[in-house]
Write a structure and sequence with these properties.
25% helix, two-stranded antiparallel sheet
Length: 221
């Protein structure tokens, strides 16, 4: 069974909810030998996870065909894949920026901090710095919303099967030297940072009470 068939079989086996344990234990991406993750609470207290999975050598990423079977950076065809098209256009589009909309928050010093819009590419390939360059062909597919036109240059990377869970899921392949970058930037948020507090030894009773009793919106719900 190919990796793509294995992932489809996993989805068809009755999994109605998604969590890290299911992705790991059931081998959605292949046999897992190790994993590490952090959970962050942002955007009104809602949690999201940064998960890095290390695959068994048998299932490691080896060629562009394998990559394309797992991750896409393209708009689906609305006639051939209407459900996927609806999910992608709802969750996986980076808002127009750069010269198309220079006032948005992702713009830093006149450039998009996420490097959008991406360049068109006919195939998936490795860059010289070991990062992956995903296929974004200029195939004429366009999504229009509120007068804006979105093309493959504004697509966020996604796994088609996982989008069936109806939420934003950004999936990337970390290979070669890129693994170090993902560990530091996305998992640990910096390899040399720490949060410290120095006090005189007289504990603030009010602060101690708040620290131990605080309930965020997610827990309250």
């Amino acid at each position: 069974m190919s990796n793509s068939e294995q992932r489809n079989s996993w989805l068809n086996s009755g999994h109605q909810t998604l969590d890290a344990d299911k992705l790991i234990d059931n081998g959605f991406f292949g046999t897992t030998v190790a994993h590490i993750h952090t959970i962050e609470f942002q955007k009104r207290g809602l949690p999201h996870i940064h998960l890095l999975i290390f695959l068994h050598p048998q299932h490691r990423i080896r060629d562009s065909h394998y990559i394309n079977s797992m991750i896409s950076a393209q708009l689906p065809n609305p006639q051939l894949q209407p459900l996927l098209y609806a999910k992608v256009t709802k969750y996986m589009l980076h808002g127009l920026c750069n010269v198309d909309n220079p006032q948005v928050k992702c713009m830093v010093n006149g450039k998009c901090s996420k490097c959008f819009p991406k360049e068109y590419r006919e195939r998936t390939d490795w860059a010289e710095d070991s990062y992956l360059l995903y296929a974004r062909p200029n195939n004429g597919l366009v999504f229009e919303c509120n007068g804006a036109r979105f093309i493959n240059q504004y697509m966020i990377l996604y796994c088609p099967q996982l989008l069936l869970f109806d939420c934003h899921l950004n999936v990337k392949i970390s290979a070669r030297l890129g693994t170090v970058k993902y560990l530091s930037k996305y998992i640990y948020k910096g390899s040399d940072r720490a949060t410290m507090e120095i006090s005189s030894g007289m504990q603030d009773k009010i602060k101690a009470h708040l620290d131990s009793r605080f309930i965020g919106p997610t827990e309250a719900y």
